Amino acid sequence: MNQPIGIIDSGVGGLTVVKEVLKQLPNESIIYVGDTARCPYGPRPVDEVKAYTWQMTRFLLKRNIKMLVIACNTATAVVLDEIRTELKIPVLGVIYPGARAALKSTKGFNIGVLGTIGTIKSGAYEKALKSINRKVNITSLACPKFVPLVESGEYKSAIAKKIVAESLAPIQKSGIDTLILGCTHYPLLEGLIKNVMGNNVKVISSGDETAREISTILYFRHIMSTDNACPKHQFFTTGSSSMFSQIATAWLEQEIVNTETIYLGDE
Amino acid sequence: MNQPIGIIDSGVGGLTVVKEVLKQLPNESIIYVGDTARCPYGPRPVDEVKAYTWQMTRFLLKRNIKMLVIACNTATAVVLDEIRTELKIPVLGVIYPGARAALKSTKGFNIGVLGTIGTIKSGAYEKALKSINRKVNITSLACPKFVPLVESGEYKSAIAKKIVAESLAPIQKSGIDTLILGCTHYPLLEGLIKNVMGNNVKVISSGDETAREISTILYFRHIMSTDNACPKHQFFTTGSSSMFSQIATAWLEQEIVNTETIYLGDE
Q1: Nearest by CB to B216, which of A27, A211, A216?
Q2: Quick one: B9 and B88 in the same domain?
Q3: What pLDDT is attached to residue A90?
Q4: ipTM more than 0.95?
Q5: In chain A, what residues touch B102 (CB-CB under 8 Å)?
Q6: What is the CATH number of the domain that holds A80?
Q7: How far from chain centre, in Å, is Cα A159?
Q8: Which of A:75-104 have CB within 8 Å of B?
Q9: What is residue A110's three-state secondary structure?
Q10: Which residues span the domain enclosing B27?
């Protein structure tokens, strides 16, 4: 089963999942689609997020993927169940992996969730956490300023530091012991977030946890690549291919030069 | 799907899995069987381990379990594949979860594995790790003295400290950055093991990681208990029920009084 794993995101955020897959599953091939031109999904109406996510999904289905990973929390929140029902291949999101990792980590069962407006409004993390443990206390916070910071490459600046501190103020003294970064862009701000929240709060990256779940499902479905596979990775964006390649090269710490720009609008 | 999850082990070691399931999956009911009378499995011939594990499995199948967890590394190593092929319900072992957690944790891809003679001789961890990442370096070490220490309750004594230090000497300077406790008994010695290995080695409990995999498979198979389930837990041992209850109460930090002794020999 040396077919590729399809990974989709609203932009470059899903590369945090790719990075962990490259590390944890080096025999696997990846096809990534980032809908950079229409990013962020967070503030968009549900129907738009659904339509865009289906466009990326159909693009990848034509390329014979063996598994689909929706590496965008907003898209997972609104359309994972629908796509899973329609497709024959396994379809994974990023919300349950983050919820599971948080429930393993927490000691006091007080868990915080950061996400886009769309993700927080959907209540998807609350639903996931409560379906596993109904007694857990959850404090959610939408951080609409974080994705634009990351997509613009400004995520290490003094402005970023200030925005992160201001955004997190409402939950800084909430008593949570575990904080889920419920957006695949947020790991880029992890250092700043940890500085604000302090050492007593364990920070969980939902995207990065997803690689373990991918590994589990590949194994249980008997679709792992063979250990002599020659993995190939392909990257597609709806935006600028050179800007995507540049960001991907920096984040993945390996040269990515073959990004192709695609148009998804009419598919 | 409020049926119980069946968990089997050669003795009390699998309670480290139970503890994590109680914490991470509080809506789930558990039936546990510990083959204390015939523990340890580590030094036994493969055919014997297979026969004993099948006896526990058949005992639980009569009790309508929805999933079977082989919470014993030795049994996982020699009979997981066979039982998985025969049963219609999902069957989980403890080796792949430990391998996955180690591959997520490692930075230098130098991973150590501690286990019983049976587990180490089987090469099951090497196979699991290499099937996921063929370039990983693995240093394995059998620690036949650890299980008797734990089963006898001697795991906090000065003798335990000495035995752990002596046993780990061969891998203390091996350059590993991650160490898998490839036996569900070993987490009881975790403090002593960490003291010997130092802060630069991340210690992974394969059993305790298994609870996350249980959670993943329950979700993907649509067999999670409903969130208003009233979970019930049952414990069976082939040895002394009072001694089992005493150890279970101490490890699980909640009173376990209803352990029943069973005889599996002729099943």
Answers
A1: A216
A2: yes
A3: 97
A4: no
A5: none
A6: 3.40.50.1860
A7: 24
A8: 90, 96-97, 100-101, 103-104
A9: strand
A10: 5-93+208-261
